[in-house]
Design brief:
Elements: H1 5-22, E1 26-29, E2 39-43, E3 46-55, E4 62-65, H2 67-70, E5 75-81, E6 92-97, H3 98-104, E7 106-108, E8 112-119, H4 120-126
Parallel strand pairs: 3-5
Antiparallel strand pairs: 1-2, 2-3, 4-8, 5-6, 7-8
Length: 144
């Protein structure tokens, strides 16, 4: 089974929105094809801008990101592995501050920061970012 790229993105956004709602945050999903903010998250007078990137399964290898579009914003990046190859497995979430994401994503030789990637297995073995929802509890990560 495989999802289309658009389905992967939508499913990932909704899973992140559901998880944050479950944790007590108010979440607004933004719509559109060219948006750079997928979710607006609100709690305790703070608003956080979130960009979500999803992969379908472990063998998808990596998430892709255009770092040039990501700079100059105070975003939180949530990376999702949907695990569609194992319907009994729950999606995995990795939560990174913008500065962490920019440092971890690797530029490609041909396109530089316009086409970067972060390996799923590398991120998972770091054992730092998985389910790190406390990023949403500090005002330094808020946009408002």
């Amino acid at each position: 089974m495989a999802l289309e790229k658009n389905q992967t993105g939508i499913a990932s956004e909704f899973y992140v929105a559901a998880e944050l709602s479950r944790l007590g945050y108010d979440v607004t999903i933004t719509f559109g094809n060219t948006k750079s903010i997928d979710l607006l998250v609100h709690k305790d007078d703070n608003v956080y801008a979130v960009q979500v990137k999803g992969i379908q399964q472990t063998k998808s290898i990596c998430w892709n990101l255009n770092k040039a579009k990501f700079k100059g914003k105070n975003l939180i990046l949530v990376l999702v592995n949907l695990h569609i190859d194992n319907l009994d497995a729950k999606p995995e979430f990795f939560v990174l501050r913008q500065s962490e994401a920019l440092a971890l994503f690797i530029d490609t030789p041909k396109e530089g920061e316009n086409r970067t990637y972060l390996d799923y297995k590398r991120l998972k073995t770091m054992n730092i970012y998985q389910n790190r929802w406390d990023v949403f509890s500090t005002t330094e990560n808020a946009v408002l």
